[in-house]
């Protein structure tokens, strides 16, 4: 379903646009995603709407699922939010240790305390961090708008599955420009 409305109290939630995660993908894939997410963040800040920047710090305790693959030593700046997002003091930053931004982070409580009823979701990886966060947001009762051209995944088929099969069942989907147009019209 295309983007029909942006609630008066909508938060932008940006998933894992951080140095270590984005470095895993090809620059030609991630650069446009980062630029579009930065446009959304700028527009939300200009409307005094919340911007939530989420970054992952992998758990130091390996799980059985991790045993089949080597866990690399992470660079010291792995979790730093990308400078292109121009993080501001008023942004809410969330550190997560699992795929979804709602698990043991206080995000749901923060959103509710700030009257948020809808989130606009973007980031990486579409089929992991973004999709898990979307499922959690849906289960928590938030309306969701997906900025589909501000997402990327290392696995194109997984990205396409999320966009075509999962996200339309959880919320509305549209491009960054479509979201910005609806956001502009919501305050006109």
Automatic annotation (TrEMBL):
<dbReference type="InterPro" id="IPR050272">
    <property type="entry name" value="Isochorismatase-like_hydrls"/>
</dbReference>
<protein>
    <submittedName>
        <fullName>Nicotinamidase-related amidase</fullName>
    </submittedName>
</protein>
<keyword id="KW-0378">Hydrolase</keyword>
<dbReference type="InterPro" id="IPR036380">
    <property type="entry name" value="Isochorismatase-like_sf"/>
</dbReference>
<dbReference type="Pfam" id="PF00857">
    <property type="entry name" value="Isochorismatase"/>
</dbReference>
<dbReference type="GO" id="GO:0016787">
    <property type="term" value="F:hydrolase activity"/>
</dbReference>
<dbReference type="InterPro" id="IPR000868">
    <property type="entry name" value="Isochorismatase-like_dom"/>
</dbReference>
<feature type="domain" description="Isochorismatase-like">
    <location>
        <begin position="10"/>
        <end position="177"/>
    </location>
</feature>
